[in-house]
Specification:
Number of domains: 1
Distance between the termini: 14 Å
CATH class: Alpha Beta
CATH architecture: 3-Layer(aba) Sandwich
Oligomer: single chain
Helix content: 10-25%
Structural class: alpha/beta
Largest sheet: 9 strands, mixed
Order of helices and strands: EEEHEHEEHEHEEEEE
């Protein structure tokens, strides 16, 4: 299973249920990586999308404790056990965990690869993902050349489970 996220210097991923920054090249990268595959997210992540709509051309699986939650075009699961059953239908390498903070923390141990757009800036944030650089279970396996979006420097990184 894969994880994909954009994180700042402090591994922050969001503020007020929004991304820290919208970088067109990162949005394209995310779309290229996940289209045609399965995306796993929490309810708040789904609700942060335009029109709160599931992502096109992907199987959208939403993990929520809200038993009455429904969303057309999404598969809703209410526990990690239910999620695990649902994910058995798909090859592990076609599954991408896309957030938010709680879902990243819950599923990190089941992921083998993490695609991180690393932002060279520290934002004011209220949501974070685990710091893979400080984890003995992960190693940085690949990194792009320096990218820029106006004055923001960032890198596309690939981490692999050790």
């Amino acid at each position: 299973m894969n994880l994909i996220a954009a994180a700042d210097k402090n591994w922050a991923i969001g503020k007020d249920n929004k991304l820290l920054v919208r970088i067109p090249a990162d949005m394209n990268y995310f779309r290229e990586m996940t289209t045609g595959h399965v995306v796993v997210m929490g309810r708040k992540t789904l609700e942060s999308f335009p029109n709160q709509a599931p992502l096109k051309d992907r199987v959208n699986i939403v993990l929520t404790r809200d038993m009455s939650y429904e969303k057309k075009g999404a598969v809703i699961v209410h526990s990690l056990e239910e999620l695990e059953e649902e994910l058995k239908k798909y090859p592990s390498e076609e599954i991408y965990v896309i957030g938010g903070e709680t879902v990243y923390r819950q599923l990190l141990d089941q992921c083998d690869v993490a695609y991180i757009t690393k932002l060279d800036f520290a934002y004011d944030a209220d949501a974070y993902m685990p710091n893979l650089d400080k984890s003995k279970d992960w190693k940085l396996a690949a990194e792009s050349e320096e990218q820029t979006y106006f004055d923001l420097i960032y890198y596309f990184q690939r981490y692999e489970r050790v």
